[in-house]
Amino acid sequence: MRTEVDIPLIGVVGPCTAGKTTLIQGLKTIGITARHIAQEHSFVPTMWQKITNPDVLIFLDVSYPESLKRRKINWNEAEYLEQRRRLAHALAHADYYIHTDSLTPTVILEQVLAFLENHYPALRLQK
């Protein structure tokens, strides 16, 4: 069972190519565990709560044009918009939101760490 001084359970959601995997890897390198919640692929709007129910939900966002630049992904705008629809509940309940189009992975990680340290001071002791 987690206590107040423990590291919070962090969930990361967002459409494909938003940077979820990269952020989670960055957090892992400094000892913070975060879970990718594949909400964008689920028809159950509350899956993020049922499977992980994180203490902190981080929503990484990306525009459709930028998603096409980041990775060769075989999808069209309608499929992107469907992912956005599936993510609506998570977005409405997100603790922290970042639109990643113009940000580097380092900047995204720094912003998330600043948010977490501000809300969970015990994290400062973990680094």
Secondary-structure map with pairings?
Elements (H helix, E strand, L loop, with lengths): L9 E4 L6 H10 L4 E3 L10 H5 L4 E6 L2 H7 L6 H10 L1 H6 L2 E4 L5 H15 L8
Parallel strand pairs: 1-2, 1-3, 3-4
Describe the overall structure.
The protein is α/β, with parallel strands linked by helices and 127 residues long. It has one domain: Rossmann fold (3-Layer(aba) Sandwich). It has a four-stranded parallel beta sheet with strand order 2-1-3-4. Strand 1, helix 1 and strand 2 form a beta-alpha-beta unit. The longest helix has 15 residues.
- The stretches of 5 or more residues where confidence is low (pLDDT under 50) are 1-5
Secondary structure tally: strands: 4
Q: Helix segment count?
A: 6
Percent helix: 40-55%
> Which structural class do you get from the secondary structure elements?
alpha/beta
Largest sheet: 4 strands, parallel
Measured on Cα atoms, how large is the radius of gyration? 15 Å
How many distinct domains? 1
For this structure, what is the CATH class? Alpha Beta
CATH-level-4 superfamily name: P-loop containing nucleotide triphosphate hydrolases
- Average per-residue pLDDT, rounded, comes to 88
Adjacency order of strands in the biggest sheet: 2-1-3-4
Give the amount of beta strand, in percent.
Answer: 5-15%
* Shape category: globular
Query: What is the annotated CATH architecture?
Result: 3-Layer(aba) Sandwich
Separation of the first and last Cα atoms: 22 Å
